[in-house]
Specification:
The protein is α+β, with helices and mostly antiparallel strands and 464 residues long. 35% of the residues lie in helices and 10% in strands. Helix 8 (290-305) crosses helix 11 (368-377).
Length: 464
């Protein structure tokens, strides 16, 4: 009788099938391992060839191999072998073209201000939650005259000016629904601008803080001028500041590239009136970086006093205030100024004032070096104004008090971020006629249970 647990033909077939599958798996695993080893060997050989090629190119091998004399046939064979070997490819990451994103990727939070060439708002990027500033370019008349040249210059100069103290342009985006006629500039957001900040300050910046701000401003202006960029609208409202004591120049709508010598047909109607240099007011069409240095001097004086230095009502009044502060121009002080278009009809007084004494009397608290720096920045003759590099090397910044660290700068609530200063609730002054009698008030429970307190081995306060 055959046992019911004995293997039959079907069991034998299943066992054979399992053994066959197992052997196939082993063979597949061995083949995979062999291919991996071959690939690793090829990779090591290619790496060795690349290292050998780099050593032969750079000449960094410690001991060069000895050259052998080869016949013509051997030389041809060697060249064919080297040509058949794979050569390493050098890859460079190059920027690629792509469609601009839409402003719908950003959530606008609040309006900040309206400038000469755009509307600035605070926004949040929906994908990352990062707070940015969005500037909508003014495109009036673009359907007839094309894309505004001021917008093109602003985008071009901001792309070329990547500096720590210059506002960063993140990207350019289209309007809602992909409207190409609406163009927005996405830039980093900073909490303040110096103009608004100083209007809310009770006292001007400390001398050490003024030095720090001027060094940062000079560093950014030097960077621009080294790359042949004229800002042409430097003023405190175009200088942004964060809560870490760092400033950044913004609003490049007036900026343009300018070579050496500068063109002879530059626009004379540039720079805000209070910061405009005298040669621009007199109608010159040939100027250089000295117009930015005059604006830097005006900003220097404004940082010291918290008020704009020269507040003219029009071009004539502005020139009058400049001459009151800096003296009357003469051919000795400013050679050739009479040849400027608007200077031919000037009627100037015969007696001139001393420039240095006027500035010193207006800034009596400023040191001798500080007065010398301000006087040279506000020199009537553009050729006598210092460059940004000379500004940074001036002795004024090396004397006491030294420039303050940005980490020690005070912080202020941001109007652009709609922040408000937190005030603790304090009682108001008494109003006449509102006093009320206290009546009978029981204070007996204030010191109740004082006699039951634990008395230590030291000092004890007793009531008399």
């Amino acid at each position: 009788m055959v046992s019911r647990w004995a293997d039959d033909d079907e069991d034998a077939a299943l066992e054979a099938q399992r053994k066959k599958e197992k052997e196939e798996k082993k063979r597949a695993k061995a083949e995979k391992q062999r291919k991996a080893e071959e690939a690793e060997k090829r990779r090591q050989q290619q790496q060795q060839q690349q290292e050998a090629a780099a050593e032969s190119t750079n000449g960094s091998s410690e001991r060069p191999s000895k050259r052998r004399r080869l016949s013509a046939d051997q030389a041809t064979t060697t060249e064919d072998d080297s040509a058949s070997q794979p050569r390493p490819l050098l890859r460079f990451d190059a920027p690629s073209w792509g469609p601009a994103r839409s402003v719908e990727n950003f959530e606008r939070l609040n309006h900040i201000e309206e400038g000469s060439y755009g509307y600035v708002s605070r926004a949040r990027e929906i994908a990352t939650g990062e707070i940015v500033a969005i500037k909508r370019m003014k495109m009036e008349g673009s359907e007839h005259s094309g894309f505004p040249v001021t917008a093109l210059r602003e985008i071009q100069t901001l792309n070329a000016a990547r500096h720590r103290h210059i506002v960063e342009l993140r990207e350019v985006v289209n309007g809602e629904g992909g409207k190409v006629e609406d163009v927005y500039l996405v830039m980093e957001f900073l909490e303040h601008d110096l103009k608004t900040l100083m209007e809310d300050m009770e006292e001007p910046f400390l001398p050490s803080e003024v030095k720090t701000l001027m060094l940062q401003l000079g560093s950014a202006v030097e960077f621009l001028h080294d790359r042949w960029i004229l800002h042409r609208d430097l003023k405190t409202s175009n200088i942004l500041m964060n809560n870490r004591g760092e400033i950044k120049i913004a609003d490049f709508g007036m900026a343009r590239f300018c070579g050496n010598p500068p063109p002879s047909n530059l626009t004379q109607l540039v720079v805000t009136l209070w910061y405009r240099s005298p040669e621009l007011l007199l109608g010159t069409t040939t100027y250089d970086s000295s117009v930015d240095m005059w604006s830097t001097g005006c900003i220097f004086g404004e940082l010291l006093t918290k008020d704009p230095l020269l507040q003219g009502k029009n071009e004539v009044d502005q020139l009058s205030k400049i001459f009151e502060l800096c003296g009357i121009p003469t051919e000795e002080i400013w050679p050739g100024f009479r040849k400027l278009p608007n200077a031919r009809s000037l009627r100037l007084p015969r007696t001139t004032q001393t420039t240095g004494s006027v500035i010193r009397s207006k800034f009596p608290f400023l040191t001798t070096a500080g007065n010398a720096l301000l006087a040279t920045l506000l020199s009537l003759n553009p050729a006598k104004r210092p460059s940004a590099s000379e500004l940074l090397a001036h002795p004024y910044f090396r004397e006491d008090p030294r420039p303050k660290s940005t980490a020690m700068f005070p912080t202020f609530p941001s109007k652009a971020g709609q922040e408000r200063r937190r005030r603790q609730a304090t009682p108001n002054a008494p109003i006449r006629g509102e006093g009320k009698a206290m009546g009978d008030v029981d204070f007996s429970g204030i010191f109740a249970g004082r006699e039951n307190e634990d008395v230590g081995g030291g000092f004890q306060l007793k009531l008399i």
